[in-house]
Structure of Chemotaxis protein CheW:
Amino acid sequence: MAEKQYVIFKLCGEEYGVEIDHVQEITEYKKATKVPNVPSFIEGVINLRGNITPIVSLKKKFNLQEDEIKDSNRIIIINLKNRHVGFIVDDASQVLTMDEKQIDNPPEILTGIDRQYIIGIGKVEEKIIIMLDLEKILSEDEKEEIQNME
């Protein structure tokens, strides 16, 4: 029985999880500086302790309804090909330890590109948590574009 820890975050009232090993840090929301000619889901860049860090809006990437940024918004920072990339989420305030038995495979209804970054469906009591691999959310072309941002 393998147990793993997951950072649980919210988007539009739904809960998502990502393996804690993939998360560099979680920081308060900082307004990003817009960068021209980038995909619409890239909010821009922030200066994170001297490093220029691209910021991705998961709501835009997932075609979810966007609302105003609140004090509870957070940025989850991951390391993507030796570059920090941030993902804006509504809230990230919990770490859960889950056994692999609590995570089912993604449902068959998911096909194509969505299936590669949804690694499973977590079940904790009555809650459903969509388990993601943030590294696979971006296509290879999008990753390349982010690598080239300054």
